[in-house]
Design goal:
The structure holds two protein chains of two kinds. Chain A is mainly alpha-helical. Chain A contains 20 helices and four strands. In chain A, strands 1-2 form a two-stranded antiparallel sheet. A two-stranded antiparallel sheet of chain A has the order 3-4. In chain B, helix 1 packs antiparallel against helix 2, helix 2 (30-58) runs antiparallel to helix 3 and helix 9 (209-226) runs parallel beside helix 12. By secondary structure, chain B is mainly alpha-helical. The chains are: A mainly alpha, B mainly alpha.
């Protein structure tokens, strides 16, 4: 038992404090160097995560295993790439203040704590450390009413969700007598029945987590916050925190509450089906791209949670692969959204993409790749993510779930295709500005990943397999 | 390794993507890009076609085994591998795909003037998907190619199509996707049940009767949309009418064959009991398709729509043949698919010739074309006659065999199929009369030019093929014989063991 196990978190925390101080001291604006320093710190943390030994530390509060490693890398990648998207945007929008990257870093730190949490207390600490910076950066464009509204809305509803989660945690503690995940698992596997208090506690915990991953029926904040927040912030919301929260979802439900699967499976099935249905139908008529992506992300969370609802190692593996591919698809899509400017002014309607295939064929091609991938059309990566999820559902005998899943994926294909249609079939309404190089690099990188994932899926699949095995033993 | 000594099928499948890479790297102004894209696409597809001729030469017609087999580990821990190979059922479809692609590119030479680079890329990607689909011997690999076709076709219809292209493209995409995702679930079920998605291994894997019925309907949802069978055929006329000429050619020539191929490759061997049980259902739907769509074709005023409906009718004959479970029916169905792939493609190209000149597909807009375009009139006539199954031309052999096979099952079934041929003669001859014969009523038609050398280059290979298939069908039928016999043998054995198990 040694605290050095938590080296990635410690390094990241120290880096955050140092960068904050370094950002304050000079008289001029330090947004760009601070951003670079933050990206660097995230990369260093990722390298440390790769080399992190396994074990528990800090009085059993902290655990490091293949599962936490996989999810932390995803979360760090999401944070670093979102930060990359934000550099150009924030400078153009006059949001180039050095607090922004530091807040992203602190939020990433919260994610790592949360992913490695092995105790309900650590879970809560991580979740709050993750959430508080998010509330601030949602409202970072403080002179913009929509952004302020997004921040406030997110804060109020997020606080409510945190309260629900904390209440659930106290109930579990009250009835089980411990907050440590390992001991909780022992208690539940030894117990004959399960007391109603624990079940209520679990439901509250699930509700709190469902809020964080924006699953139905706790999704209502998502469209408004996604639309109102600055676009790179939306990119961040849609990727890193979601991955972290899903990771926690998996660890909590399959770890300490693994023996109570019968109790929470129903709840998760409902959440999953509800999210898939809402995500596919509500997005059909959206004209704002960020709002559309909000509903799209609700739908995708529905598919991901399908893997969890199945409560098997195949399901968990599917969930992990899903999150990895989901992250890349979304970063790519948001790179295009961030790049959308006309005469220097950011635009975000679907119609603004009209005729993009004529005016900027490269960007249109990448966007089309992302859309087909999000729709789950082979041979793109999005197809494989769905394939592993459906495999788990069919293997578990959840036929209704699987059929609803494939049918909603056809419905959602409609709105992804609509974007392709606007780009390729419609006449241009005026060219968009040239995308800055940093965004083009992100688009091309994520686009190539999506287009060529089929060539060599083995590394991600194998890593997900190992991660799932680590959690389920 | 295989009869070619090198991974021939993979080369044929993925070589078009090399063409795509070259086209993408072309720099210069629009004119340069357009010209170089056309030539690159043409040469790529021609080389692919020439390579695929090795299949014709080296294919062992006496064997029912999969040939030119290639196998690579892809996702070994899941029992999914990259497995390619052709047998008598698929080999000629590979050739059909590789032969039609250069013809399509030639036919689009002057008709496509906007975004030529993207158009050529779409066609080459489409070729990869089509060829890969016919060669795939792993179910997941098959599904990837099967669905992957949708992306380029969606763009071809939507970008270069007619006035209602958006509606047609969406309808095409969503209809097909809806059918396919249900098949995907069935594939996943087989995958998890048998522990592999390798098709030859799945053939050995017995499936319980209840499961067979569910899987049958899941496959039917997908293949019936692709074929297309009545009543899920409605996407086809829309897609055909709106697609550019070459898009229609590929749709009619190859994409419609995917459904029939799917029935032969998967439904029959994997689900023998369910296939027998639901054959009457297929017969009923097919006869309705043949008669109903033929009548609908009679009422059409748009040439492309008429030919689209005639395709549905011909495909009805194919599905009848497939579910007769006798060698005549199966060989006939395969032959009809090939013949239809050539003849209806050529008919769409014929319509395209007129459309390029007059920009109308309305039948009433024409008349007396024979006097101005005699060469065209001859070509059009050959394909009209082929389409109504005149002996000596391609379709006759196939349709005759199907009707013969249907007669062995039930004479009334043969009557239904034959009714389609009679009605087919009616609408095709009437179409031909209205367009080609008669007096020239519209002055602007007088200035039309006859076929250009490029257009002759498009049509001559198709005419020769049509004659060859009609006069000496044995050189094509000999490809299927062994595979069809083996398929039926397995089918009978499977039914026999099921009956034993039932007792």
């Amino acid at each position: 038992m040694s605290w050095t196990l938590a080296m990635p978190e410690l390094v990241l925390a120290c880096a955050g404090l140092v960068i904050l101080v370094a950002g304050v001291i000079p008289n001029r604006e330090t947004f760009f160097p601070v951003s670079m320093a933050v990206i660097g710190a995230l990369i260093v943390a990722a390298l440390l995560v790769i080399n992190q030994p396994e074990g528990t530390a800090l009085g059993g509060q902290y655990v490091s295993d293949a599962y936490s490693g996989f999810m932390k890398l995803l979360a760090l990648a999401g944070a670093a790439l979102s930060m990359l998207l934000a550099i150009d945007w924030n400078e153009k929008e006059g949001l180039g203040r050095f607090e922004f990257p530091v807040l992203v870093l602190l939020s990433a730190l919260g994610m790592m704590v949360m992913i490695s949490a092995n105790d309900l207390m650590a879970l809560y600490l991580g979740l709050e450390l993750l959430s508080l910076p998010l509330y601030v950066i949602a409202a970072f464009d403080r002179d913009n009413a929509r952004s302020s509204e997004a921040g406030l809305k997110y804060f109020v509803l997020g606080a409510l969700a945190s309260g629900l989660l904390l209440y659930g945690a106290t109930l579990v503690y009250g009835f089980a007598g411990t907050t440590n995940f390992d001991r909780l698992a022992d208690v539940f596997s030894a117990a004959q029945g399960v007391s109603a208090g624990v079940v209520v506690g679990i439901v509250f915990v699930i509700a709190g987590l469902a809020f964080k991953v924006s699953a139905v029926p706790f999704h209502m904040w998502t469209p408004d916050v996604y639309e109102g927040a600055p676009t790179p912030v939306t990119a961040f919301f849609a990727t890193a925190p979601k991955v972290a929260a899903i990771a926690l979802f998996g660890r909590v439900l399959l770890g300490p509450f693994g023996d109570l699967a019968g109790q929470w499976q129903q709840v998760l099935l409902l959440i999953s089906v509800g999210s898939m249905l809402l995500g596919s139908f509500a997005a059909l008529r959206q004209s704002n791209l960020k709002r559309l992506m909000a509903y799209s992300s609700i739908g995708h969370v529905g598919y991901a949670l399908m893997g969890l609802a199945v409560a098997s190692d195949v399901g968990l593996r599917g969930l992990l692969i899903y999150m990895a591919i989901y992250l890349v698809m979304n970063i790519g899509t948001f790179a295009v959204l961030v790049a959308m400017r006309r005469q220097g002014k950011a635009v975000e309607q679907v119609e603004d993409l009209a005729g993009l295939a004529d005016t900027d064929p490269g960007m249109a091609m990448w966007m089309a790749v992302f859309m087909f991938s999000l729709a789950g059309i082979p041979p793109l990566a999005g197809f494989f993510s769905k394939l592993y999820i459906f495999l788990a559902a069919v293997q578990g005998g959840f036929w209704t779930l699987a059929v609803i899943g494939v049918l909603t994926s056809v419905v959602s294909a409609y709105y992804y295709l609509r974007i392709v249609k606007v780009m390729y079939f419609d006449r241009p309404v005026g060219a968009l500005d040239r995308a800055p190089a940093s965004l083009v690099v992100v688009m091309a990188g994520t686009g190539v990943f999506n287009a060529l994932f089929w060539l060599w899926p083995a590394p991600i699949v194998a890593a997900a397999q190992a991660a799932a095995a680590a959690l389920l033993g | 390794m295989n009869a070619a000594g090198f991974p021939l099928l993979s080369l044929i499948t993925f070589l078009p993507l090399a063409g795509v890479a070259i086209i993408m790297s072309i720099r210069g102004d629009d004119e340069v890009i357009a010209r170089n894209s056309r030539w690159t696409a043409f040469w790529t597809s021609l080389i692919v076609f020439l390579l695929s001729l090795i299949l014709w030469a080296r294919f062992d017609r006496s064997s029912a085994e999969f040939q030119f087999v290639e196998q690579l580990a892809w996702l070994p821990e899941f029992g999914v591998g990259y497995h390619m190979g052709v047998d008598g059922i698929s080999v000629l479809f590979v050739l059909l795909s590789t032969a039609l692609t250069p013809i399509c590119i030639m036919a689009s030479w002057e008709a496509i003037r906007t975004q030529v680079r993207e158009y050529m890329i779409a066609f080459l990607v489409l070729e990869t998907m089509m060829v890969g689909m016919f060669c795939a011997l792993d179910f997941i690999v098959f599904y990837i190619f099967f669905e992957g076709v949708l992306i380029p076709m969606f763009l071809i219809i939507g970008v270069w199509g007619g006035p209602r292209r958006v509606y047609a493209a969406f309808k095409f995409f969503l209809y097909t996707l809806l059918g396919s995702v249900l098949m995907l679930l069935a594939i996943i079920y087989l995958w998890y049940n048998a522990g592999t998605t390798d098709i030859p291994q799945l053939f050995e894997h017995p499936i319980s009767r209840t499961a067979q019925i569910w899987i049958f309907f899941a496959f039917l949802a997908s293949f019936a949309v692709k074929v297309p069978m009545w009543p899920v055929h409605t996407w086809l006329p829309d897609a055909h009418v709106e697609a550019p000429t070459a898009g229609s050619v590929i749709l009619a020539g190859v994409l419609l064959k995917m459904g029939g191929y799917g029935f032969l490759r998967f439904t029959l061997p994997l689900l023998p009991e369910a296939s027998v049980q639901f054959a009457p259902l297929i017969f009923a739907l097919s006869v309705i398709a043949v008669v109903y769509t033929s009548l609908v074709a009679l009422a059409q005023e748009d040439m492309k729509k008429l030919i689209a409906y005639s395709s549905v009718a011909h495909m009805g004959i194919v599905t009848i043949g497939i579910f007769t479970f006798n060698p005549q029916g199966l060989s006939g169905a395969l032959f009809t698919m090939l013949a239809h792939g050539i003849v209806s493609s050529a008919l769409f190209l014929c319509v395209g010739v007129l459309y390029d000149r007059v920009h109308s597909r309305e039948i009433a807009r024409y008349g007396g074309v024979a006097k101005i375009m005699p060469g065209y009139a001859v070509v059009f006539m050959i394909f009209t006659m082929a389409s109504i199954a005149l002996p000596g031309l391609a379709n006759f052999v196939g349709e005759f065999l199907v009707i013969f096979g249907a007669w062995l099952v039930n004479p009334w079934l043969a009557f239904g199929a034959a009714l389609g041929m009679i009605l087919g003669a009616a609408y095709m001859l009437w179409l031909y009369r209205r367009v080609v014969f008669g007096r020239i009523t519209r002055g602007d038609l007088r200035t039309l030019l006859d076929l250009s050398p490029r257009e002759y280059a498009v049509f001559v290979p198709l005419v020769l093929l049509t004659l060859w298939m009609g006069v000496y069908p044995q050189s094509f039928l000999s490809f299927f014989d062994a595979s069809v016999a083996a398929l039926l043998e397995r089918h009978v054995a499977a039914l026999g063991s099921a009956r034993l198990a039932g007792m």
